[in-house]
Amino acid sequence: MSTQVQERETDTEAEETSDQQQRRRSETGERDDMRERAETDLSEADETVRIKVFRYDPEVEGKKDPRFDTFEVPFRKGMTVLDSLIYARDHFDSSLTFRHSCRQAICGSDALFVNGRQRLGCKTQMVDLEWPVRIEPLPHAEVVKDLVVDMEHFYDQMEAVEPYFQTNDLPDGELEEQRQTRENREKVKMSTRCIWCSACMSSCNIAAGDNEYLGPAAINKAYRFAMDKREGADIKEHRLNIIEQEHGVWRCQTQFSCTEVCPKDIPLTEHIQELKREAVKSNLKFW
């Protein structure tokens, strides 16, 4: 009985080993095919572009020291930084790691440091950049692997301003809408465009030196709700109390770096200054 069990276990192990070997051969064959295709693409391309990509992997021996890898990719009209990274990953190095999702400048997941400036990879055209293109992870954030940074602290700062609608003034009718005037909608419209990419936070020198600073993205989110008249005066006062703390709006030094790098063209510095004025007015007392 035990001999039969042992034989079955041995057969199973042999099958697993055979499957693993076959899978490895298949993966090796696919990589070879991709490299051959890349060589064909490069030979047939009218123009190629060289990208220098930051590499770092703390879990792999030999990759713990940060470095730059260079890839030559075929250039085509309309090519973005994200397109070049995807090509390099698919044809040269499958371990190349970066975030991306919608590829339409909506999700905000592929914010990168490209040629010394915070940009969205999917929005940035290669033709608009100086070549070779240097691609790095966002500064002032912990690098997890290659171009991926830890976003947990950024999300914590966003959550700190309570980024959701609150009101004590509900409509009387059960199905009645909580209407907003056109003028009020126009006032907060730009602030609603934030895609939580953290480009502004990465560019901010104050955030780099003060880990508790709320940052331009979080303050902009506070602006979006503080200026929404449907919430009411009491909720607005509560929001102003959050953002006028020691590490809130008063830490901003009006450098405009956040406004310059915002991929959605939100006037972040202007919103921060307006919240400063609102905070001052809320503290004025007239007797």
Query: Could you state the CATH homologous superfamily of the largest domain?
Result: Alpha-helical ferredoxin
CATH architecture term of the largest domain: Orthogonal Bundle
Rounded radius of gyration (Å)? 26 Å
Total of DSSP H or I helical runs spanning 4+ residues: 10
CATH C-level of the largest domain = Mainly Alpha
- Structural category: alpha+beta
Shape: elongated
Tell me the series of helices and strands, N- to C-terminal.
HEEHEEEEEHHHHHHHH
Task: Give the helix proportion (percent range).
Answer: 40-55%
The residue ranges in which pLDDT falls below 50 over 5 or more consecutive positions are none
Number of E-state strands: 7
Integer count of domains:
2
State the separation between the terminal residues, measured CA to CA: 97 Å
Oligomer: single chain
What does the average pLDDT come to?
Answer: 89
Which range does the strand content fall in? Answer: 5-15%
Can you walk through the features of this model?
With 287 residues, the chain is α+β, with helices and mostly antiparallel strands. It folds into two domains: 31-145, Ubiquitin-like (UB roll) (Roll); 151-283, Alpha-helical ferredoxin (Fumarate Reductase Iron-sulfur Protein, Chain B, domain 2). The protein has ten helices and seven strands. The protein has helices at residues 2-44, 81-91, 152-160, 182-189, 199-203, 205-209, 216-226, 233-243, 257-261, 268-283, and strands spanning 48-55, 67-74, 111-114, 117-120, 133-136, 143-145, 148-149. A five-stranded mixed sheet has the order 2-1-5-3-4. It has a two-stranded antiparallel ribbon with strand order 6-7. Helix 7 (216-226) packs antiparallel against helix 8 (233-243). The chain is elongated and about 75 Å long. The N and C termini lie far apart (97 Å).
